[in-house]
Design brief:
Layout: H1 5-18, E1 32-36, H2 49-62, E2 65-69, H3 70-76
Antiparallel strand pairs: 1-2
Helix pairs in contact: 1-2
Amino acid sequence: MGIKPENYQILRKHLIKLMGSKCAYCGSKDNLEFDHKYPSKISMSNMSRSKREWHWIIEYDRGNLQLLCALCNNTKNDSIPIYFPNTSGLI
């Protein structure tokens, strides 16, 4: 059973609010994306939207999900947080 498409934005907004509504590294509130603190071995690109949303919830519960702005997320890429150049904002 998946999350209905009409509830997708509600879930996304709720998770963003729970996570402080800003980038964990630079504090930006624009273009926020979910990022795995420690890279996931699961390919999100091959995952259906419904499974991806459940994956977010599981990773949030495990403490492996953070919010990053698009710029910080692209810079971090698949790095482990300790190797990311701007570690002062780690949560």
